[in-house]
Amino acid sequence: MKYPKFLTNDSTIGITAPSAGIGKYSKEFDLSLENLKINGWKIIETPNVRTEGDVSSSAKERAEQFQDLYLDDYGKVDAIICATGGDFLTDMLPYIEDEYMRTDCKWVMGASDPTNLLYYMTTCYDIATMYGHNAGSFDAKKLYQSQQIAIEFLKGNIIPQESYNLYEKEREGRINGEYNLTEKVEWKSNKQEFEIEGRIIGGCLDCLRYLPGTKSDCTRWFTKKYKKDGFIWYFDIFSMSAEDVYLTLFQLKENGWFEYIKGVIVGRVLFPKNYTSMTYNKAFEKIFGNIPIIMDADIGHVAPKMTIINGSIAKITWKNNKGKIEQILR
Questions:
Q1: What is the b/e burial string over 230-246, where b = at least 16 CB atoms within 10 angstroms of the residue's CB?
Q2: Is 326 helix (H, G, I), strand (E, B) or coil?
Q3: Number of neighbours of residue 205 by Cβ within 10 angstroms
Q4: Residues 6+ apart with CB under 8 A from 95
Q5: Residue 102: its pLDDT value, please?
Q6: Are 90 and 210 in contact (CB under 8 A)?
Q7: SS3 201
Q8: What domains can be seen in the chain, in order of their start residue?
Q9: Which string of DSSP letters, residue by residue, matches 151-197?
Q10: What is the Cα–Cα distance from 315 to 151, expressed in whole angstroms?
Q11: What is the mean pLDDT of each run of 10 residues along the chain (330 residues)?
């Protein structure tokens, strides 16, 4: 696994919009950038960052602007953070050129729709990537611990992350952009207590479901290469129903994604729903059986959000509805 160089006080972050642009949220986005600049980092934006609409630009243009940052065409760039989420990132993947991805190595961070770019880089090119926050995710007068940890990760301080005390059920109650934490956090599991270790991989399941059958799906090659480590899969669910989750996991399993699996950790669902007696717990248990499964973890769209390094070795401990994730760059 290739781990890019971490950021220093004089590093430059490139921001691009491989999915949607930030549109009307420019004020919040500017605050987020100011919180990044406090660390001494300079910011370079590609032309598509501040656009409106379903996508920031055409699929080819999005790939080219990402590539321009990766190849330092805008000046020296030390890491790339995706501007925000969206729906259509996957259609830019065919335009990413193999050569530069194989010869260069930079941290790329994102969340939600950027999943498939991060997953593609890690599973096809063996480059570690960071999931959990976009460039617009730091838009608060006072950053919460999980946001600060994401920044520390970019600096190379890979801090162990423990489950939080409260999570945010309603964003509408935010003051000065700070998380509106009101609900008790409880990581639920099908086990009494456990500790597992393996190479961690995953992302937003709403996005990953579109990869099987495409040229961007290198999962079986990746899992075979690291089969001795075994795998911990993490999933962030945005709005898929319990039925869709079950059928998607079934499809991924049939495509050979879950060989050598050791455990699963699933974040809180932002917009939960079901149409039959299927539940999210049942969906995962029917697919994965008796292996350790954690539900309602601090991963994904519901704040606070942990940072996951795709491709790293993760050790996860769980007991009494509390958990801890430690990540090792090996």
A1: bbbbbbbbbebbbbbbb
A2: strand
A3: 24
A4: 59, 60, 62, 63, 64
A5: 85
A6: yes
A7: strand
A8: 12-160 (3.40.50.10740), 166-328 (3.50.30.60)
A9: HHHHHT----EE--SEEES-GGG-BTTB--EEEE---EESSSEEEEE
A10: 21
A11: 97 98 96 98 98 97 97 93 98 92 92 98 97 98 98 98 97 93 97 96 98 97 98 98 98 98 98 98 97 98 98 97 97
pLDDT at 101: 86
Amino acid symbol at 225: K
Q: Which two tokens stand for residue 230?
A: 């075994």
Query: DSSP class of residue 251?
Result: H
**Is the CB of residue 269 less than 8 Å from the CB of residue 280?**
yes
Q: Nearest CA to 194 among 229, 158, 167, 232?
A: 232
Query: For tokens 């401990």, what's the residue?
Result: 317
Rounded Cα distance, 13 and 27, in Å:
19
Question: Which residue type occupies 75?
Answer: G
